[in-house]
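The instructor's notes for this session suggest beginning with a concrete chain rather than abstract definitions. Hand out the sequence below and ask the class to guess, before any prediction is shown, which regions might be ordered.
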Amino acid sequence: MSSPPATPPHSPQRTSRTSTKKSSDKWWWIGGFLFGFAVGLALSLPYGWILDPRPLPFKPADLAERDKEQYLRLIAAAYAHDKDEARARSRLVALAKPNIEQVVVQLTERYIEEERDVRDILALIALSEALGQSSSAMVPFMATPTPRPTSTPTQAPTPTPRPTQTPTLVTPIPTATSTPTKTPTRTPTLSPTATRTPTATRTPTATPTKTATPGPDAPFGVAQSVPLCDNSNGGLLRIYVRDRLGVGVPGAAVRISWPGGEDRFYTGFKPQIDPGYADFEIRPNELYRIELISLEIAGPVPEINIDPDTLCPDLSVGVDPSWQLVFQQGVSR
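After discussion, reveal the predicted structure:
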């Protein structure tokens, strides 16, 4: 038998099919890539330009007025921290606002009127002072150094010189010598015994003791805690905070707590009454605990409880008693 003819190793028909398949796969991948790129570009451009556009770079002068106010508050807080006046001025210039000093003063006065956070108020006042500006509304919050009492040295008394005695020369006058005559001697008569007058005893006068003035670092204590039975402005806790010389202290933080909660307020928002004055509405038959949290305190924390029937029975109907609490530096109870 004869064997079948051998097939040549490279058939022209098989090579043509392989090259056609590889060429079609290449165009498939290229077409898929271009399609995906076109779809991604079509979706990303509307998203980046319309739905979520990326903000362009802007300056502080481009901020809205509300944001500029926050920017001013942050400048004041930074200056209160580092006391860098040059940096604070450069930041204010970036706002490009005319009369920026008056803008800072107006913002400070509005914060005082609205009773904002006292820390922001003090920072804005410090920035205003650095800019050479102030107003009457800022005076109760400005820190004035309390003068220390100076002791005046008492001069020692100058001794008065004693008068010098000048000896007087007495010239003897010659007298005539006479013959002595006998003078009869009288017998002394007995007189009644003289009564002795008692000698007055000197009572020593007590030297008054000087009351020592407390130092500038002395803690505060409760100087007064009394109910007020008046028919005007009833139901108020009236607090005064005074330094060692009796001057009101503004900006003192007071925390008041009761079984149902607690609150915090500051002195100095009513300077027409006293720089260190603050008040808080209280209810009868409620136990309140009052603390100074920004100053050092000595002694127990005061607690009050108003009972209208016991404390002030003569008050008008519907008027609750008030309570006055005075904290003073150097007082301890």
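Then share the key points. The chain has a mean pLDDT of 77. The CA atoms of residues 72 and 155 lie 56 Å apart.
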